[in-house]
Design brief:
Helices cover 52% and strands 14% of the residues. By secondary structure, it is α/β, with parallel strands linked by helices. The N and C termini lie close together (10 Å).
């Protein structure tokens, strides 16, 4: 099974946050070969920025950032380049009032006929009223 994950779910693999337990289920399934992860290439700068912010706020040490970054880089994620997704992501963002960043993940979910797993409840609520609702699942509802 393929799942599209966004940066907030990816970070929950490595940081103790709300819904980290749910994210751990996904990571275990990835490690067991039951799930294949997909994401736009945007996921790397987004997670890098989260790590940078946590370091600046003194929530993570430099060595913790390096360890998590290395773990992220070693995960088997099938990466979709952003350039061919951009037009559709912009259109999706304008039509549904979501950011182009979020739209990139939604487009990957649509083209791969997979679910986007996100911890962004606002995104799920916005998309729940659209034809794209079948492509998004809130992490708190993930049953694996």
């Amino acid at each position: 099974m393929n799942l599209v994950i966004d940066a907030n779910v990816l970070m929950k693999f490595f940081l103790p946050e709300v819904l980290s337990g749910q994210a751990a289920k996904i990571l275990t399934q990835v490690e067991q070969g039951e799930i294949r992860l997909r994401a736009p290439d945007l996921i790397y700068p987004e997670t890098g920025n989260i790590l940078w912010k946590k370091h600046r706020r003194k929530e993570l040490s430099r060595s913790e950032v390096e360890e998590i970054s290395g773990s992220i880089e070693s995960l088997p994620i099938s990466i979709e380049p952003s350039k061919p997704l951009m037009s559709l992501a912009i259109e999706l963002g304008m039509v549904y009032g979501i950011t182009v960043y979020d739209s990139m993940y939604m487009v990957v979910a649509k083209i791969s006929e997979s679910a986007l797993i996100t911890a962004d409840r606002k995104l799920v609520e916005q998309i729940s009223k659209t034809d794209y609702r079948k492509y998004v699942t809130w992490l708190g509802h993930y049953e694996g």
